[in-house]
């Protein structure tokens, strides 16, 4: 059974197309990440999935079309900029969340402990720090022990310790075979948590697949010689080079495989009458990889 | 779900500072206006040749109409409270939070209509207590039939305050900003609708929202001067009609809005 089926969503804000033919299928037990720079359409996509905004085109089907009540009981969500009643304490706000979900109040202690907010439960929401507000939003999402968790930028505003704590909490959730749909612009978070990643840019899906394939780390080669034009032509003919780029006018950068043999390339270039004075094989960071993907699209 | 909605709305209402302050203000203004009218009328000297004893307006059954008319102005604070609460929830993102937690758009509107009914019942209860106490103090013989005779004013007052509150809620969901909503509501009630009534000389204006609501109330002194032509059944039907139309309009707006 598909947990969530999103088909061909498009959303316009005036003439601006915020989401363009967005589709995804969320299966039981998947940890699905939506990755993209700020303004790429992640929050718009999640808002439509959660029924907060209306799509101009496309459809969202939860649990093969089961009732709204089932969606309410089985999902927990936390979006950016959490909003609770400012004059009420964290615990009082969670009582309202428990009422809406039809969950017992005993859940409140459990989720406050899990998110590290138990000792701040009596503090008014307007006195919470940004990080505490974020934790309270995640606590509200966890009420009722949902089967599916939908999180938008869950580590926003958290300090490193808080980020670690929330990440561990999410990993504990997914380790139970439960389903996660998470949007983030932080690549390392998606890489650490999600087993499936969709990359979104300008409202369009540019990559969708298992995280270890989408964010495959390919090394690059930096190479320079006196005559860059000659070098470029020689490298273009070399079959083991996937992608070639001229950087700053002094270097050529090529995307290569992990088992690429630099000595072999050197021998090929010398035979071609080119003497490279700079050859460096570099292992790129995930960030570089992600930026390349965004640039390409 | 109705029970849950009542629980949620009551929790929000009882813990809201704005609700506490405005409700206290309503209480205070109501008590002051009742004290003012009872003191004023209680002290008017009665001429032997006078045909009307001013204290009869404070006796059963007239006291119900007198008091309901008297506190109807202070009661306008309750629609203002509804507008303030609705706009605050809209602008602070509380509605968005409720929606992601699983409240449907229909339940959002139903929740606020429940709040309106709760506040209206509370205001009506205050009116009943005040009317009963004033009536007991100024009526010489208090037979049960005298007390119950004018008591339809209780239901008319309840309908009146519910009607204006639903109108305020509709303004709030369409406009969104607290200040603009309150100014627009006030402008509609005291400028726009009265102007329409003045310009269009046709009985149809009696069916405009505020005209329908106000016809539910009766000012006994004016009635005595002009004679009674009040058709409460028509006013109640018109108000009920507006309650349905305004609730559906609010639901239409809430269900089509992006949060």
The CATH topology of the largest domain in chain A, please?
Rossmann fold
Q: What is the terminal-to-terminal distance of chain A?
A: 33 Å
Largest sheet of chain A: 6 strands, mixed
What count of helical segments of chain B does DSSP give?
A: 12
Q: Report the helical percentage of chain B.
A: over 70%
Based on the structure given, which CATH architecture of the largest domain in chain A is correct? Answer: 3-Layer(aba) Sandwich
Determine the oligomeric state from the structure.
heterodimer
Q: From N to C, what is the helix and strand string of chain A?
A: EEEHEHEHHHEHEHEEHEHEEHEH
- Give the percentage of residues in beta strands of chain A: 25-35%
Average pLDDT of chain B works out at 90
Roughly how many Å is the radius of gyration of chain A?
24 Å
Which pair of protein chains has the largest interface, and what are the residue counts? A-B, 31 and 23 residues
Question: How far apart are the first and last residues' alpha carbons of chain B, in Å?
Answer: 23 Å
* Helix and strand pattern of chain B: HHHHHHHHHHHH
As laid out across the biggest beta sheet of chain A, the strand order is: 5-6-7-3-8-9
Low-confidence stretches of chain B: none
SS elements, strand count of chain A? 13
CA gyration radius of chain B, whole angstroms: 20 Å
Number of beta-strand segments of chain B: 0
Question: Helical amount among residues of chain A, as a percent range?
Answer: 25-40%
Number of domains of chain B: 1
Key phrases:
heterodimer, A: 297 residues, alpha/beta, Rossmann fold, Alpha-Beta Plaits, 2 domains, 6-stranded mixed β-sheet, 4-stranded antiparallel β-sheet, 11 helices, elongated, B: 259 residues, mainly alpha, 12 helices, globular
């Amino acid at each position: 059974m598909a947990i969530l089926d999103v088909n061909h969503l498009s959303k316009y804000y005036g003439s601006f197309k915020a989401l363009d033919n967005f589709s995804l299928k969320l299966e039981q037990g998947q940890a699905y990440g939506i990755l993209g720079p700020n303004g790429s359409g992640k929050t718009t996509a999640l808002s439509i999935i959660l029924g907060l905004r209306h799509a101009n085109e496309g459809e969202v089907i939860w649990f093969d079309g089961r009732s709204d009540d089932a969606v309410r009981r089985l999902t927990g969500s936390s979006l950016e900029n959490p909003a609770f009643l400012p004059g009420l304490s964290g615990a009082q706000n969670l009582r309202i969340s428990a009422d809406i979900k039809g969950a017992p109040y005993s859940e409140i202690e459990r989720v406050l402990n899990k998110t590290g907010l138990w000792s701040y439960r009596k503090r008014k929401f307007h006195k919470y720090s940004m990080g505490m507000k974020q934790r309270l939003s995640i606590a509200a999402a966890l009420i009722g022990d949902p089967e599916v968790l939908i999180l938008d930028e869950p580590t926003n505003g958290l300090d490193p310790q808080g980020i670690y704590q929330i990440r561990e909490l999410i990993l504990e959730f997914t380790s139970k075979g439960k389903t996660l749909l998470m949007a983030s612009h932080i690549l390392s978070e998606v890489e650490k948590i999600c087993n499936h990643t969709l990359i979104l840019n300008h409202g369009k899906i540019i990559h969708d697949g298992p995280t270890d394939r989408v964010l495959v780390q390919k090394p690059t080669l930096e190479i320079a010689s006196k005559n860059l034009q000659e070098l470029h032509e020689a490298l273009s003919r070399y079959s083991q080079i996937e992608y070639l780029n001229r950087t700053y006018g002094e270097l050529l950068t090529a995307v290569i495989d992990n088992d690429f043999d630099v000595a072999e390339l050197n021998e090929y270039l010398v035979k071609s009458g080119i003497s490279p004075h700079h050859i460096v094989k570099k292992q790129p960071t995930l960030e570089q990889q992600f930026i390349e993907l965004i640039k390409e699209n | 779900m109705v029970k849950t909605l009542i629980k949620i709305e009551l929790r929000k209402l009882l813990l809201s500072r704005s609700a506490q302050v405005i409700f206290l203000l309503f209480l205070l203004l109501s008590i002051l206006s009742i004290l003012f009218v009872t003191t004023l009328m209680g002290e008017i000297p009665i001429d032997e040749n006078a045909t009307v004893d001013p204290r009869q307006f404070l006796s059963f059954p007239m006291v119900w109409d007198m008091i309901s008319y008297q506190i109807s102005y202070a009661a306008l604070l309750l629609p203002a409270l509804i507008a303030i609460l609705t706009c605050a929830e809209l602008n602070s993102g509380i509605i968005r939070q409720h929606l992601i937690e699983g409240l449907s758009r229909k339940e959002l509107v139903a929740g606020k209509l429940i709040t309106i009914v709760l506040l209206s019942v509370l205001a009506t209860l205050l009116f009943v207590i005040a009317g009963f106490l004033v009536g007991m103090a100024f009526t010489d013989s208090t037979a049960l039939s005298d007390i119950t005779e004018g008591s339809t004013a209780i239901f008319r007052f309840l309908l009146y305050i519910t009607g204006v509150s639903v109108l305020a809620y509709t303004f709030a969901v369409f406009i969104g900003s607290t200040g603009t909503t309150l100014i627009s509501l006030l402008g509609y009630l005291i400028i726009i609708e009265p102007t329409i009534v003045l310009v269009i000389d046709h009985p149809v204006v009696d069916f405009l929202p505020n005209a329908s609501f106000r016809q539910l109330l009766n000012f006994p002194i004016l009635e005595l001067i002009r004679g009674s032509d009040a058709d409460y059944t028509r006013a109640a039907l018109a108000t009920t009609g507006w309650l349905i139309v305004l609730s559906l309009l609010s639901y239409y707006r809430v269900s089509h809005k992006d949060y």
